[in-house]
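All the exercises in this workshop are built on plain-text protein records. Sequence and backbone structure share a record, each on its own labelled line. The structure tokens are whole numbers drawn from a learned vocabulary of backbone shapes. The record below serves as our worked example for the rest of this section.
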Amino acid sequence: GYADSDLWTLIDGEAEGWVAPSGLALHDDTLYITDNGTSRIYAYDLAGDLIDWVDLELPAGALMGIEVIDDESLYVVDAVGDRVLHIAAE
């Protein structure tokens, strides 16, 4: 069981300004977090340091789950707009 497991905080969402974290994905040692309160996607390294973030400017409550396909291709759910968004690096 999990009784002998260690538990620690990697990232303090309140300190980072998260409002309502809603999605989590890990790809190539980068942790992606979506916040449906702010419509932002955050990228962190495995030490918990912020690498980058993007504001999708969606209405509060829209941004849900996330899937990372490769280093330059993310898919997120827009629950308010009833759609899946593809986000790619330029």
About this structure: The mean pLDDT is 92. Helices lie at 13-16.
